[in-house]
Description:
Helix content: 25-40%
Number of helices: 15
Number of strands: 21
Distance between the termini: 32 Å
Strand order of the largest sheet: 7-8-6-9-10-11-12-13-14
Structural class: alpha/beta
Largest sheet: 9 strands, mixed
Amino acid sequence: MIPVTSFAGKTVAVFGLGGSGLASCHALKAGGAEVIAADDNSDNVTKAAQAGFVTADLRSVSWENFAALILTPGAPLTHPAPHWSVLLARQAGVEVIGDVELFCRERQRHAPQAPFVAITGTNGKSTTTALIAHLMKVAGYDTQMGGNIGTAILSLEPPRMGRVHVIEMSSYQIDLTPSLDPSVGILLNVSEDHIDRHGTLENYAAVKERLVAGVQPGGTSIVGVDDIFCRNIADRLDRAGKRVVRVSVKNPLPDGIYVEHETIVLASGAERSEVARLGGIGSLRGLHNAQNAACAAACTLAMGISTDVLQNGLRSFPGLAHRMEQVGRRGNVLFVNDSKGTNADAAAHALSSFTDIFWIAGGKPKAGGITSLTGYFPRIRKAYLIGEAALEFAGTLGEAVPHEISQTLDVAVANAARDAEASGLTDAVVLLSPACASFDQYRNFEIRGAAFRDLVTALPGVKPVVM
């Protein structure tokens, strides 16, 4: 835990008592603050009270003595309308911040030069965060990974030299972190997302820009420049005097890092040098993972890690659970768990990474279904449809893709494994990439992915994939 000493002797309101909110309560209390905890969910309030915290309805207390409101990222700060607690804080002149801001203030107070890597982007940030954390461990760092990837940042060990914090940040978290100052900031990409919480795509992009614009003096801003928003952001950072490393997987760059023929290349003026090779690394298949790997490589180079260590770390990266996760192999058949592919755009990344696919898809459908995936249909040898979306997906596939309505995951796995083995294809892949939410049959994508993994490993002759 990271004790938050910056509010010692002061009273702080904490709204939102999920994992990060409760961790904030503990960290503030450990640092000497008095905490008043609140939530719209009565079960969360009960848990906080059982943990020994004073709880209250913030609508019925005086805000006169509050030094800050620590807000959960799940509560809107601006759009579609500020949460009621935000309005009360503003009326009282109380600052509204999040748990990453508390971390930044502690780092500034106690270890301002401790390495801190912050990662954001519309797509790929979890994989990039996990990959960088893996590379840092391979390089010998005491590595702390958290943030949006799942572990509350204040639950980690405190900043110090020799210890690196690798933190994934959503736009909601950036919005609540005015002092954000990583030593390395990474912006992977920007595309339309979370407009309901930011009002416009331009506002959303501006929030993302703050992460790389806030990099501390002497630090490095790494920006993927394969979209127009990020290209413009990189140019503005240049003009502001920041050290910027541009990254592309679509075009060679005159200066920066790019990927060409599965090789990560560093360009500096007329000079070109090979940084690492991605060929044959199953956990980093696909153009989207090439971008993740290239940005991670830029980070390691900025931190002085050798290319040999980088290459070894890339080869040993196991991948992120439930995202293009190689579960097992039987003969020529590879089983891949992409349970986190909960919409068509996410499933497209997986479908683009293989050529002979026995595709398990379905669940609770989302707007648009799989109509945007028609360009990948020639890669699909057969589809196995499950859950509420089965009939809708069958209609979209039509005669273009052989398919069956399996209804449940166990039937789909058994039939896909049988058909893939019988196909005689040398690189057959049984792929769970549902393009749907899990809520019709599973509580979340993790449980769905774990069920797939259990079903696959129970098949006779399946051997785990060793990275």
